[in-house]
Fold this protein.
Amino acid sequence: MSATCPMTGGAVIADGISKEFGTARRPALHDVTLRAAPGRCTAVVGPAGSGKSVLLRCLAGLERPTRGTVRIAGTELTALDEAARTEFRRTRIGVVYRQANLLPQLDVADNLLLPLDTAGRRADPDLLQRALDLLDVRELLDRATPALTRAEELRVAVARTVLQRADLLLVDDPTAGLDAITGRHHLRLLRRRCAEFGLPLVLFSADPATAAHADRVIALQDGRVVQERDRPADCGCEPGSTEHIA
Ligand SMILES: Nc1ncnc2c1ncn2[C@@H]1O[C@H](COP(=O)(O)OP(=O)(O)OP(=O)(O)O)[C@@H](O)[C@H]1O
């Protein structure tokens, strides 16, 4: 059976995924379905232990669900063997963890291009210029990586994902380590820029402020989806709205 399906376009679809670990009494995830469209922001929220990290790892291809499928831009991730899944993850999925995973010994410019360099690819010059401008990274290029603030680090990590032309951006705890105002600013920037680059964005957070910035919110508890809601169309906060420009 082919692992690709042209019908799903650039969307990300987790369909009925469950994850069980060893002899744990209850599954870490139970029958979770999530759809993330290109340029749309989905927030997965829930208290500690609700399954956010396990869901992130399943979407990132780091964990194989016990049941269900994950399809990313037409490729069924869950049907790939280990080697193909690793390659897919490395080249097509951007993940920004609580630590942005930048190498302190490299400057910002080298960090930005590292995944492309490792894959023997070159950055698309137009995309590079757009990413530098839209994510306010240009002025950071000569900076030493350890001197970056958390917000700056995150912008570099997002620009790196855009340059990779990834099919999905997953951000764990996007406001961790940021004060409330910087956190809001950062969420607006993330959401608007992913809309502009047509990138499906999935945020994972226990912070209710994160949900307020998403087009769609999925609430988890004990590994199950307990609530799903879309942003009201008339709230004046659509991705293109100036209300969301940082
Ligand atoms: N590798 C693992 N082996 C066994 N159980 C695990 C493993 N990873 C996660 N779990 C369990 O799965 C459940 C969900 O954990 P998860 O880390 O996804 O929660 P979370 O919502 O991300 O919490 P937090 O906000 O604290 O990071 C928990 O009961 C956890 O103990």
